[in-house]
Amino acid sequence: MRIVLGVGGGIAAYKVASLLRLFTEAGHDVTVIPTEASTRFVGTATWEALSGNPVSNSVFDDVHLVNHVRLGHEADLVVVAPATADLLAKAATGQAGDLLTNTLLMAHGPVLFAPAMHTEMWQHAATRTNVETLRARGATVLEPASGRLTGADSGPGRLPEPQVIFEAAMALVQGRSDYQLPLAGRTVTISAGGTREPLDPVRFLGNRSSGKQGVALAIAARNAGATVRLLAAHMEVPAPAGVDVQRVETALELREAALAAAADSDVVIMSAAVADFRPAEVSDTKIKKRDDTADPVITLVRNPDILQELVEQRNASRAGAGQLVVGFAAETGDSQGDVLAYAEAKLQRKGCDLLVVNHVGTDKVFGQDSNAVVILSRAGSEPQEASGTKTEVSEAIIRRISFELNHVSPRA
Question: How many domains are there within the chain?
Fold first, then answer.
């Protein structure tokens, strides 16, 4: 497939090198057309080396090939990333001042814009009008990701991750011109890792959670087009790019962060391993082991039930109507019941919409790269099994969440 990849003049241009590699590794022939401004961020030599094709942004290069007409006619797909406010305005008003804008006017195939700019620029009425104009003409304009921008600001305006743009582009050439990432425009809050409850300045009560499943969920939600907030307790893996990260340590800190983040979230996924108990008292100094003293007695108190509070907050708020709350249950069976029996009881007790059930053990789930889960629904649908790598399991969970959001009636 012949792809024209237009590169706008924004700092996010460096990310487009990864997008180009995704296209070429998939076997596509890519011609890169950078704007003059974009070459201040990434030079033409980079684009030529990665694409294997000559690169120009002038209508006066290789005039005998009539590139300003030919490239648009021959392209099976045109992708513009980053699509700056300036480029969106030029495309919407039909300007043709360089090779890229000429090519956009001549394009016969699908056109995909991946915006990136400051939040105020994206939300400005002029930009919104330009986006609506382009969409009305049949172009696909992705929603930008939300997160840290070039400076200290944070908000919608980040370039979507290269994998997200690639998947959207492939969907277009498969004939889905109305393609929409399943979680585009949605905000998803995900907790990950294990909380730690301090005993003294040195010791804590913790658990075996590595955070791998939560991070995989954040990546899957991000790749589905969502704005992702990751509430990260202790994790053995780094947080992914393209998501907002808030660090927490204890169950009480996670509770505060989760209730605040859930207030304007479409989905809340509580995949973190939250300590059920915490020490009633925390020593200001290290608890010493002395031969002349008795063994210390540690009194534990119950931590709040964050999942249940999230459901109660959702149900008490009109703004929360339609919000999906997803819990995780790490269960072991015993003589009183099996894993699913305990999980079903927990689902009804907590009141969440979906419960993802893990059968845990010393060598199961925690810290592993693979997982097997059962997804239970409070609505009573058949349990759904998912297994494989934690990436594959996360993608299955996000697909189920997308289905629930798009096909199930909002809750009263």
Answer: 2
